[in-house]
Amino acid sequence: MLKNAFARLCAGMLIAVAGASHAFPDKAITIQVPFSPGTTTDVNAREFAQVLSEIVKQPVVVDNKVGAEGQIGASSVLNAPPDGHMVMFTSNSLPVLDPLMKKGLPYNPIKDFAPICAFASTSNVMNITASSPYKTVGDFIAAAKAQPGKFTFGYASAVQRLAGELFQQAAGIKLTAVPYRSSLVALTEVAGGQVDLIFIDHVSAMSSYQNGRIRPIAVAGKQRYKAIPDVPPASEAGVPGYDIHPWFGFYASAKTPPGVLEKMRDAFKRTLLSPATAANMEKRDLQLLPLCGDEMARHLADDVSLTRRVLNKAGIEPQ
User: Fold this and answer.
1) Which DSSP category does 62 fall into?
2) Which of 307, 269, 265, 245 is nearest to 115 (CA)?
3) CA-based radius of gyration for the chain
4) What is the pLDDT of residue 22?
5) Cβ burial 254-290 (10 Å sphere, 16+ → b, else e)
6) Which domains does the chain have, with CATH numbers?
7) pLDDT at res. 301
């Protein structure tokens, strides 16, 4: 009897240890941002990390791994242990646009990542060097039509490139695309006049607006943003086809155990729906997008289908 009792005790201890080893989170969580510090992706990740840390009672740190238009940061998540303690926060550039616009990716953005929760959608703004003589979209389009290919736009992600391509299609002009390693470098080049334009969200460009080196002249879509209320939407500026709204989300390795993913989604959704996150949304003119798990996967699939149609119409082939 003593032997059986001892065996049951040992078995119970093993089960407890096994359960503890699968606890989440049992250490610091790292949010991998595959883009530059200071971009809207980075800023939102850092604000979210503070709120998430309070909810899960563990440290949450943000790490920026820049390069290859996000591929270096994404690969680092896949190379980490799939235990839920390393996640990626990115715009739809990586999971939606990269598979449609790039050849030879080192991973499959759809199959290799598991959706945790979507976060929010934001603006895309046509920004021009402040010293440019063109004050309106109409002025710029007239000049670009007179000199096809002369004007340039910088980009550091597939979303930024797609926005530039959409604008060209809508305006009936030809621009020259210039790739950059990071959005910060691209913004600096536009501010210095080395490149004419950049199509990026207003949060990422805000410091350049404030120091007067970059000027926003049109917002994609139909709505104005409180942070830049004098900037007309594309529908009013005469280029309604310039309509793109980047969105952001959290992803884990697809090898993460289902039980851990469930706990992650619960913690992340509670963070998304918290008053602190709502305040941050309001502050940055973001539209909350609290879709988790299968709901996020469906939203992603719909975006892939829509983007594929847009790219086919624009004649953009994977490169």
Assistant:
1) E
2) 265
3) 22
4) 55
5) bebeeebbebbbbbbbebbebeebeebbeebbbebbb
6) 7-119+247-314 (3.40.190.150), 125-237 (3.40.190.10)
7) 93
